[in-house]
Specification:
Elements lengths: L4 H32 L1 H12 E6 L6 E2 L5 E7 L2 E4 L7 H12 L3 H8 L6 E2 L8 H10 L4 E4 L2 E4 L7 H4 L1 E2 L5 E3 H5 L1 H5 L3 E6 L13 E3 L6 E4 L3 H18 L3 E7 L6 E7 L12 H4 L3 H4 L9 H10 L9 E4 L2 E4 L2 E4 L7 E4 H7 L2 H11 L1 H10 L26 H8 L8 H12 L3 E3 L4 E5 L6 E4 L4 E4 L3 H17 L13 E11 L2 E15 L6 E8 L8 H19 L20 E3 L8 H4 L7 E6 L3 E6 L5 E3 L3 E7 L4
Parallel strand pairs: 2-12, 27-30
Antiparallel strand pairs: 1-10, 2-3, 3-7, 4-5, 4-6, 8-9, 10-11, 12-20, 13-14, 13-25, 15-18, 16-17, 19-22, 20-21, 23-24, 24-25, 26-29, 28-30
Helix pairs in contact: 1-2, 3-4, 3-5, 9-19, 12-14, 12-15, 12-18, 13-18, 14-16
């Protein structure tokens, strides 16, 4: 059958149109891919070709309130390898093993792995000497990235508060953990490109994204006070070989922690070298124990607030013990204190006297004040692991439980609870939330990103009651059991504590936690210091004997470092035959050298300079020092 020319022509036209449509669709698709998807597909391809060499950010520094660095960073390079770029795995692994001190077979296995990029455990955060040696070898496929590791310049100093960071610069404990998100920053990288065989693509430029450094964290800690506390705890540890020691210093008017330390301690950079129970327990906020007589401050404050006692005019007779609910409760002094005012009850830390105050209050009022002062609940301090303490359930409180609670036995509290509560008792009656993180600062701009301010929880007693508490506790130091915390030139108030330790529900023989909590100046408190020593050896285990002198020394140096000037309006100290004789320094300035020998004082002179007259002396005139102390005088022509 013959096909006409018309039909052929139609078929050709249809085929042409069909072909044009196909080519049109292909062109549209190519245009769509080229112009609309081109960038996206290129980026996807680059992702397949790319290898990221990470650049770690600098972890934010942790500073004290004055800008002293307590936790910082030091450079520590890290080694990476791209296995497909390594032509001689055997030789490269031999060189790596030699420099890094690792097993050659292990290095070879990593270098021949199918991974696009590997890093060596032994090559993480290496020394600059090792990094320099590796660079000198010029091994292809081996890369050295900038990295850093945490550095604690003062070693064991403030270790439980600071905590530590792990090998990946992540916070694992303490402030490092609490503020990890703010401190850690964001990673950066150098991105280079390689083909399917892993060879570097020289015609494509590397991409670089700078890391974003973490924020700096400024604490409320005062490194000068912290240094004083650390020194005194070291001295006490050497003198008494205790099971543990705790110390806290706080500004009672704000809740700012000025110093915090405990023993046993550890070096944050070597935390793996000590048992977990040492570094994982910040004792000032974690530990709970019977407070002993330091708790009497709360009973005293409650009785004064409720007008249940007149310290000067009300009297009490202490026979040495008292029977309560069929149980006989004893005073620490055998035979008792006899007839005494309630101020003397406080000075003498007389247990039966405080039992009487507890009875006057009644259990509902007593326990209401205890809870208002913050016992039985967390203070809210910004540190992990805070304990709550243990109080008697009110419906289970009988006469004996009420009596023992009044003088600090049978309840369990944390050190930070005691510091916060006593601060409220002496600061005018306001309970504050303790805190240790003060500000977050952008290290590039120096601008403050976050700033904490004091948090008032509630008013627990009146200003008038607080003033009476301060006066009573000042007399404890000057006239009572806290005499060894007395600081010449400063009005110090405080209270001793001696608590028998409990094990398996029974009190341990000859094993006590002795403590002292003090504040100064007594009329306008700037600092509260608490120290507790767990089972001191080779000494009489009393708070007034062991803990009070520690607080006294901390107070003496801390007040001077804070710029608080000595005064002469102290309550006269009750002197016993064991106390050293104190003498007031005369004014030696302007005195001729030849006249010094005839002066009727028992002090030694350390002479500096030359000249006929004394131009300066240290300590200054009016300062009281121990008889026989050495003072320095400077000689010259004219007094300053």
């Amino acid at each position: 059958m013959r096909v006409s020319n018309v039909t052929v022509r139609k078929r050709l036209i249809a085929a042409l149109i069909g072909g044009l449509l196909v080519f049109f669709v292909i062109d549209v698709r190519l245009g769509y891919v080229q112009f609309l998807l081109g960038n996206s597909l290129t980026e996807r391809a680059k992702d397949l070709w790319s290898r990221n060499l990470p650049f770690e950010p600098k972890r934010g520094e942790i500073l004290d309130r004055n800008g002293v660095a307590l936790a910082t960073n030091i450079s520590a390079p890290t080694v990476y390898a791209v296995p497909r770029q390594i032509k001689d795995p055997a030789g490269t692994s031999e060189k790596l093993a030699t420099v890094l001190g690792m097993d050659r077979q292990k290095a070879y296995k990593l270098l021949t792995s199918p991974e696009s990029m590997v890093k060596f455990p032994e090559g993480r955060k290496i020394s600059h000497e090792k990094a320099k040696s590796l660079r000198a070898l010029g091994m292809k496929g081996i890369y050295i990235a900038e990295d850093s590791k945490r550095h604690y310049p003062f070693g064991k100093y403030l270790s439980h508060v600071l905590g530590f960071a792990g090998i990946d610069n992540q916070g694992l404990m303490g402030i490092e953990l609490s503020y990890d998100k703010e401190l850690k920053g964001e990673k950066g990288y150098v991105k280079f490109y390689a083909d399917a065989k892993g060879k570097r693509m020289e015609n494509m430029a590397d991409d670089y994204k700078a890391p974003k450094d973490g924020l700096d964290l400024k604490l409320t800690i005062d490194s000068k006070i912290q240094t004083i506390v650390e020194r005194e705890l070291d001295n006490a540890e050497a003198a008494y070989n205790p099971d543990g020691i705790i110390a806290i210093a706080m500004n009672p008017k704000t809740g700012e922690i000025l110093a915090m330390s405990s023993r046993p301690t550890f070096d944050p950079a070597k935390f793996k070298d000590v048992p977990q129970e040492i570094y994982n327990r910040n004792l000032p906020v974690w530990s709970t124990y019977e407070p002993g007589s330091t708790f009497k401050i709360i009973t005293l404050a409650a009785a004064l607030e409720e007008k249940k006692v007149d310290l000067l005019n009300d009297h009490f007779y202490d026979s040495g013990s008292v029977e309560v609910g069929g149980a006989r409760l004893h005073c620490w002094k055998r035979g008792g204190h006899g007839s005494e005012t309630f101020l003397e009850v406080v000075q003498n830390s007389c247990n039966p006297g405080f039992i009487e105050l507890g009875e006057r209050l009644g259990k509902e009022k007593l326990f209401s004040y205890i809870k208002n002062f913050g016992f039985g609940s967390k203070t809210g301090i910004d540190l992990q692991g805070e304990g709550r303490g243990i109080l008697f359930n009110l419906d289970r409180v009988g006469p004996v439980e009420q009596a023992t609670t009044a003088f600090g036995q049978g309840v369990s509290v944390t050190p930070i609870q005691q510091v916060a509560a006593v601060s409220a008792a002496v600061n005018g009656g306001t309970l504050y939330t303790p805190y240790i993180a003060k500000e977050l600062i952008d290290p590039k701009t120096g601008k403050t990103v976050m700033k904490k301010t004091p948090v008032k929880k509630r008013k627990v007693i009146s200003e008038d009651t607080s003033a009476k508490v301060r006066q009573a506790l000042e007399s404890v130091v000057a006239q009572g059991t806290g005499g060894k915390a007395f600081v010449e030139g400063y009005r110090v108030g405080g209270k001793t504590g001696t608590a028998q330790k409990v094990k398996n529900g029974r009190y341990m023989e000859g094993n006590y936690i002795v403590s002292f909590i003090g504040f100064a100046p007594a009329d306008d408190p700037q600092i509260v210091v608490y120290t507790a020593v767990d089972n001191p050896k080779g000494t009489v285990q009393f708070g007034g004997t062991v803990a009070a002198p520690i607080v006294g020394k901390i107070m003496n140096d801390s007040l001077r470092s804070m710029g608080v000037k000595p005064r002469k309006d102290q309550i006269d100290k009750k002197v016993n035959w064991l106390d050293p004789v104190m003498v007031e320094l005369p004014n030696l300035k302007g005195m001729k050298v030849k006249d010094l020998q005839s002066q009727p004082f028992n002090i030694n002179l350390d002479v500096s300079g030359s000249g006929p007259k004394v131009i300066k002396q240290s300590p200054p005139p009016g300062t009281k020092v121990k008889e026989g102390s050495t003072i320095r005088i400077y000689l010259g022509e004219k007094a300053e």
